[in-house]
Amino acid sequence: MAASAQALACLARFTTVRQRSLALAAPLSDEDCGAQSMADASPVKWHLAHTTWFFETFILEPLEAHFAPFHPAFRFLFNSYYNGIGARHPRALRGLLTRPSMAEVRQWRADVDGRIVRLLDSFADAFADAHANKAGPPVPTELMALLELGLQHEQQHQELLLTDVLHLLSHNAMHPAYDSSAPAPAVATPLTMVAFDGGVCSMGFDGDGFCFDNELPRHRVFVEPFALADRLVSNGEFAAFIDAGGYRDPSLWLAEGWDVVSKNGWQHPLYWQRDDDGQWHEFTLHGLQRLDGARPLTCISLYEADAYANWCGLRLPTEAEWELAVTSAMSPADERLRQLFGHCWQWTSSSYAPYPGYATAPGALGEYNGKFMLNQYVLRGSSCATPAGHARRSYRNFFPAGARWQMSGIRLAH
């Protein structure tokens, strides 16, 4: 694609992604946007600011002529974990950042957006001049790669914004709804185990578009024959596990999981609650709803997922099994697997580790994924909060085993 066409395409995508972040914040008050409900969650205002910090720090600073930051303090306040950039405000104290205001964050976003647009325009103009002089076109490879990474990064934060808002609003006794529309009811279907032959297969990203570095390099793995559930575990099925005493039976749990359950008094998924009549309800982005037994279970930890699988006499899939099965299921002739994307992230039994031959990129951007490859587990698929077009079969999400504020659920294997 010619450089000018690249610039126009990137500009359209940049505008769409950046506007969606503001649209996600639109239903919220400034008070909603400044609050932090726990150390692992961030205020909406921080998400909007940090994603802007990313573009200013990694694109404008190295590539813009006569660069000057919008505000020098923002470099410190909205750095997340990039040690190569410098010191940062403590993660657990992001809710104390009453300044800058939401209005100032929006001003900053508009300023950075305008400067990114001018940077893209400058490349398009340079291409036009070079073409008129029959010279070789400039190739803004670095800019395009950084811009795409920034947009993918912002889409990750769009998902985090929603899951963090859900956790925040769940602490309010008014049961406020982020989205006042009524969710569509789910349809119950039988669960079937689908057999796969296994063998030597390739896994990792193999497309022409974007991927994160943790999806590479593509490599071969050997997978024994296995079976994967054709759909996700439902709320109703997990409710049966609770009623059978699943949270009280230590034989079902990993030792560390049982310690966490005992210490924290877990008796049900994070957003479930029972009324006086024994009816389950679930707090959702639509507010407090009567539990839909047919809807896929979500917002559970790896510990809970593993205990449920043990109770069923089954297990969680490895990420290689998940990718092999989904690769087959995404072919036009194979429709045996359902609910692969757009419902909830699916826990695997695989530790988050580098693929053979993986190497971190140089500089601060090399901190994006590699340094987190310890004490975390891989989730596959995507959730209802994942932006459209952001999911793919090689995508490797990852969280600690005890994390359950994310929209994560279960697909069984044996």
Describe this structure in words.
The chain is of the alpha+beta class and 414 residues long. The chain folds into two domains: 3-169, Four Helix Bundle (Hemerythrin (Met), subunit A) (Up-down Bundle), CATH 1.20.120; 193-409, paralog of FGE (formylglycine-generating enzyme), CATH 3.90.1580. Helices cover 37% and strands 12% of the residues. It has ten helices and eleven strands. The chain has helices spanning 3-25, 30-34, 44-63, 74-77, 102-132, 141-169, 235-243, 255-264, 302-311, 319-329; strands spanning 193-196, 199-203, 219-223, 226-229, 272-274, 280-284, 287-290, 344-351, 377-382, 397-399, 408-409. The chain has a four-stranded mixed beta sheet with strand order 10-9-8-11. Helix 3 runs antiparallel to helix 6 (141-169). It is globular and about 65 Å long. 39% of the residues are buried.
- H-E order: HHHHHHEEEEHHEEEHHEEEE
Average of per-residue pLDDT values:
94
What is the distance, rounded to the nearest whole angstrom, between the alpha carbons of the first and last residues? 46 Å
Q: What level of helicity do the residues show?
A: 25-40%
CATH topology of the largest domain: paralog of FGE (formylglycine-generating enzyme)
What is the fourth-level CATH superfamily of the largest domain?
A: paralog of FGE (formylglycine-generating enzyme)
Strand order of the largest sheet: 10-9-8-11
Counting structural domains, the number is 2
The main β sheet shows up as: 4 strands, mixed
Radius of gyration: 23 Å
* Strands, total number: 11
CATH architecture of the largest domain: Alpha-Beta Complex
Overall structural class, as computed from helix and strand content, comes to: alpha+beta
What portion of the residues fall into strands of 2 or more residues? 5-15%
